[in-house]
Amino acid sequence: MAESCLMKWQQSGRENMMPKSTPLFGLIYVLSAVLFLIGVSFDMWLLRFITKPIPVLLLMIWIGLYIDKRRYVMCILLGLGASLAGDVFLELPGNYFLFGLVSFLIAHILYIVAYLQDAKDLHLLRALPAGVYGVIFVSVLVSGGQLGPLLIPVVIYATVLCAMLWRAGSRYGAASVSTFSAHMAFWGAVFFVMSDSLLGLNRFYTQDIPFVRFGISSLYWLGQAGITFSVLSSLHPQQKSS
Fold first, then answer.
1. Is 132 left (phi over 0), alpha (psi -120 to 50) or beta?
2. Tell me, what's the pLDDT at 16?
């Protein structure tokens, strides 16, 4: 019994600590992001293509090396993998936007599944702000008159995106979720929504947003980092009750 309690305490401690090599990962993360933005500034496709997936790949490696593989963590890891595919599709020459859209749709679904692991209460009132935002945002895109055959895919994507934001917010107050983990997941989701909103506006409403790719990419990387760090201090219910 004592040995079992000690093992659970040690496991819980690992999940709550930031690995010592995290600053190194962070440095490479920022450096690759800066190189990508340089590629954007000077229209260097090869540099963009090489560096765009690196930040998310680093997050996947960080989780793979240091974090215990609970179901929550595995869903986040798979979501990052789908996002990685989306990053590649969006940088390929040609029209691969729909492939990227589907990849990120899968990522959001996996994040929703992750959030449902430790926060199963509906909290319908928390869905209201996300739902209202989604309706307004889609209405703005429709008014731009540029959606065409992508109307239904974009509506589906926006619905799932807002559901992801809702479920991230629903983790606040859950018995097995620390405040740190809840903050990381929620603000990660907020930044992700902001990034996708800029992307949608730039593609389907107006192309006159200054420095839009800088905003899209920076918010996206902040969002993915926040969602990834939510695996810290997100204890499995059985571990917390022990």
1. alpha
2. 55
For 230, residues 6+ apart whose C-beta sits below 8 A from its C-beta are 76, 181, 182, 184, 185, 188
Measured over all CA atoms, what is the biggest interatomic distance in the chain, rounded to whole angstroms? 66
Q: Given the structure tokens 């859950």, which residue do they identify?
A: 174
Mean pLDDT of 24-49: 97
Q: Which two tokens stand for residue 20?
A: 């010592």
Q: What is the reported pLDDT for 67?
A: 84
Q: Are 134 and 156 in contact (CB under 8 A)?
A: no
- pLDDT value at 134 more than 80: yes
Q: Give the pLDDT mean for 164-169.
A: 98
Residue 177 pairs in a beta bridge with: 234
Please state, for a pLDDT cut of 90, what percent of the chain lies above it: 82
Rounded CA-CA distance 64/151 in Å is 37
3-state secondary structure at position 177: strand
The domain locations on the chain are: 68-241
171 close to 181: Cβ distance less than 8 angstroms: yes
Name the phi and psi angles at 147, rounded to 5.
-70, -45
Measured between its terminal Cα atoms, the distance across the chain in Å is: 11
pLDDT at 12 over 80: no
